Amino acid sequence: MVNIPELVQQTNGFSDYNPMQQLVLQAPWDGKNMVVASPTASGKTIIAELTGLNSILNKRKKAMYTCPLRALANEHYTDFQDKYSKQQNIRMAVATGDMDSSSKYLSQYDFVFTTYEKLNSLLVHRADWLQQLGTLIIDEVHELDSDRGPTLEMIITKLRILNPKLQIIALSATIPNSDELAAWLQAELIQSNYRPVPLKEGVHYESTIEFKDNAREKTREDDPIEAMLSNTLEKKKQALVFANTRPRAESLAKQSAAVVQKFLTIEDKKELVKIAKKIENALESPTEQCKKLSALVQNGAAFHHAGLVQTQRSLIENGFRAGAIKTISATPTLAAGVNLPSFRVIITSLHRFDFGGMVPIPIREYRQMAGRAGRPKYDSAGESIVLCKNELEASAVMEEYIRGEMEPVSSQVGREPILRMHLLGLIASRFIFDTQSMDDFFSKTLYAFQYKNTDNLFRMLRGLVKELSELGFIEGEENRFWTTKIGSRVAELYLDPLSAADLIAALKKMDLNHFGALFALVDTTEARPYLNVKTKDEALVWEELQSRWAELPITSSEAMFTDTQLVQKFQTAKFLDAWTNETPEQQLLDDFNIQPGIIRAKLQIVDWLAYSAVELAPLVGAQQHTGLLSRMRKRLSSGIKEELVLLCELRGIGRVRARRLFNSGIKTVADVKQASVENLAKIIGTAVAITVKKQLGAEIEKGAKKKIDAQLKEQKTLFDHS
Ligand SMILES: Nc1ncnc2c1ncn2[C@@H]1O[C@H](COP(=O)(O)OP(=O)(O)OP(=O)(O)O)[C@@H](O)[C@H]1O
Ligand SMILES: [Mg+2]
C-alpha cells in the first residue's frame, strides 16, 4: 500500500497538513463519501489529490474530478499531471468537449478531469467504464443551486444507482446546509472555519474603508477606485476588481491603467510589452478590442471577461500571476476556484442584470468573489472591499452580505424546461422505463430529500412523458416506455426536446436555403441569448424580416405575432450570415454590437446545433439537406464563403489569409502547393507561408525565414523608391 498522505505532502512540499485537512485525515477518508465544507483557499484541492490517488494507487480503481468550468478542469488537470503523472505512472486526461460521444478512449485513463456537462453526456452515452470509477470528486458542489444544478443532481443520482460502491467527495466553500447535503449523500461531514490566510472583509465609502471588526482605514479623497488601487499598489500588492458587466469591466480597466502605470518598474514594462504584443495578435487580424486591451496591458492593467478569446484570457491570468500585470477588472468569470495573487479584491457591485432588470446577487456569489483575495501561495493576508455610495448602503452591505448568513443550497430539479431534457436522457439511457422506475429515480434526488412532498414533481413528470410521446421522442405506455430512434438521438445530442422538435420541423421543409437553415439553428433554446437590436434599428430590421419571411423555415404563421423574440432571432441569423459571407470581424463587432469571445462562444453552440441537424436529417427523411448543412458547418467554423472552405483546412489559414490567397489567384490547395514560398510569403507573411508549405510536405531549409524577410524588405524599398 502506498502511504498517500505522505506522498501528497512530500510532492507538494508542505510542512504540515492544515487543520481542515487533518480533520479529513482523521475521518474514514479512504472509503466513505465525504462532504467538505470549508472556506475559500483552505486547500480543498488537496482532498481531491488524497482521495483520487488513493483510489488509483491503492484500490486500483479510476478517479474522476468534475467541476463547473472548463478553465478550472484544465488548471487542476495540468497541476495534477505535473505532480503525479510520470512520477506515479498515472495516466491522466481532461475531457470537456465533444458532447456526442461515449469517449471510449477515456477508459484507458486512470484519472479523468471533466466538466459536469461532459460527465452527464458520458452517462447519456452509457459510457460503461464509468462503472469502474472508484472515486468521484465534485468541486464547487454548491452549483447544485444554479442553472446547471439539475445536471449535477442527475449525475449524482445516476452514478449512485449505476455504481453503488462509488466514493463521492463533494467540496465547497459556500454551502451552509452541508449537513443536509451530507445526509442525502450518506456522507461523512467535514466542516471547518479554517482559512490559512486571514481575509478581512469590508466596505468602502466616503474615503474610508470599514472592516467587519469595525477597524477603519482612510483612503485618498479622489475617486474610490483610484484611491483603493493606489492604496494597494503602494503596499506593492495586486488587485482584482469585479464588475457586473463587460463594458464596466473595460472602463474600470481604463481607469486603473492611469493609476497603475505610475507604479511600473523598467522590468515590468519590458514584460508588459511582450504580453501586450501577444494579446494584440491573438486573432488573425486584430480588432479594436484587441488593440484596446493590448494598450491597457502595456500600462499594467487588464480586463477579463467572456468577450475575450481563450488565449487572451490565459495571457492575462499568467501575466497577473507573474506580477507584471498589476490589476485585472473582471466579470465573475474569475470568481470561483481560481488561485491568483490578489491581495485585494474590490467588488464594485452586488447586483447583476437578470430577468430584464438589476437583481441582487446571492450572498454565496459574493463570498466566492471575496474568496479570491489572500491565497496562500501568494499572500499572507487578504482583503475584500465592496464599494458603496454612502454610509447607508455600506451598513446594508455589511449586515446583509458581510455579516449575513449564506442562503442554503436547494435543489433546482423542479424546473420544467430542464427537467424535460433530463427526463428524455434518463429514458434513453434506460434509467427510467415505466412510471414506477421514474418515481423511484426521482425519489432518490436531492429534491425529494429536501422537499419531502414530491406530488408536484411526479405530476409534472407524468405531463412531460405525455408531451415527449406527442413529440414522437418516446413510445409505449405507462407500464413500459422507451425512446424512439429519433428520441434517443435527440437525447444523445443533448438538445432541449422542444428545440429539437422545431429543428426537425424546419428540416422537413423542402426549400431550405443557407439563411433559412441558419435561422432554424438560431430558433432554439440553446442559441439563447439572441443578439439585441438597437431601438433605433428595430423598425428597419422588422421591415427586412417581413420582406424575407418566405425564406424562414417557420411553420406557424402566427409566430409573427406571438414570438416576442422574433426580431432578435432574425438579427442573430443575420449576424451568422454576415460572418459566413466574410464581413470583416471589426465591422461585425460594430454592426452587431458583439465581441470576439462572444462570437466564438456563439459559433461553438451554433456548430453544435448544425452538427445535430446533420445527424437528425437522415432520421426524419430530410437527407436532401445534409450537404447544405455540412457545408454550412465549415463556413461557420471559419467565417467564410463556400469557395474558401478547402483553403481554410490548412493550419494557419483563416478567413483573412484564405481570402488574400484566393484573390491573388491561389484558389486551391494544389495552387498553394505549386506556389513558391517567397510568393506565398508576400501574401500571407513569411512565418505562415513556411508553416503551410511544411504541412504540404515541402522541405524548407534552415534560415529561410531570415532570407525571405530580407528579400521582401529589399523589394519593398525598391518599390517605395520607384
Ligand atoms: N497544507 C498546506 N500547506 C500549505 N499550503 C497549502 C496546504 N494545502 C493547500 N495549500 C495551498 O493553498 C492554496 C489554495 O488551495 P485550494 O485552491 O485547494 O483552495 P480551495 O479550498 O479549493 O479554495 P476555493 O474554495 O476558493 O476553491 C493552494 O495554492 C495550495 O497549494
Ligand atoms: Mg477549490
In short:
The chain is α/β, with parallel strands linked by helices and 722 residues long.
Describe this entry's structure for a reader.
The protein has 5 domains: 4-191, Rossmann fold (3-Layer(aba) Sandwich), CATH 3.40.50; 199-402, P-loop containing nucleotide triphosphate hydrolases (Rossmann fold); 416-482, Arc Repressor Mutant, subunit A (Orthogonal Bundle); 497-639, Sec63 N-terminal domain-like fold (Orthogonal Bundle), CATH 1.10.3380.30; 647-721, DNA polymerase, domain 1 (Orthogonal Bundle). It is 50% helix and 12% strand. It contains 32 helices and 19 strands. The chain has an 8-stranded mixed β-sheet, with helices on both faces. The longest helix is centred in the C-terminal third of the chain and has 21 residues, at 596-616. It starts with a helix and ends with a helix. The mean pLDDT is 91.
List keywords for this structure.
50% helix, binds adenosine-5'-triphosphate, 32 helices, Rossmann fold, seven-stranded parallel sheet, eight-stranded mixed sheet, Arc Repressor Mutant, subunit A, alpha/beta, 19 strands, 722 residues, 5 domains, binds magnesium ion
The CATH homologous superfamily of the largest domain is termed: P-loop containing nucleotide triphosphate hydrolases
List the strand order in the largest sheet: 10-9-8-17-14-11-13-12
Task: Catalogue the ligands.
Answer: adenosine-5'-triphosphate, magnesium ion
SS strand fraction: 5-15%
Whole-Å distance between the termini? 80 Å
For the biggest sheet, the summary is: 8 strands, mixed
CATH class of the largest domain: Alpha Beta
Q: How many domain regions?
A: 5
Briefly note the structural class of the backbone: alpha/beta
Cα-atom Rg, whole angstroms? 28 Å
Task: Output mean pLDDT.
Answer: 91
**CATH hierarchy: architecture of the largest domain:** 3-Layer(aba) Sandwich
CATH topology of the largest domain: Rossmann fold
Gross morphology: globular
Number of strands: 19
Uncertain runs with pLDDT below 50, 5 residues or more?
none
Question: How helix-rich are the residues, as a percent range?
Answer: 40-55%
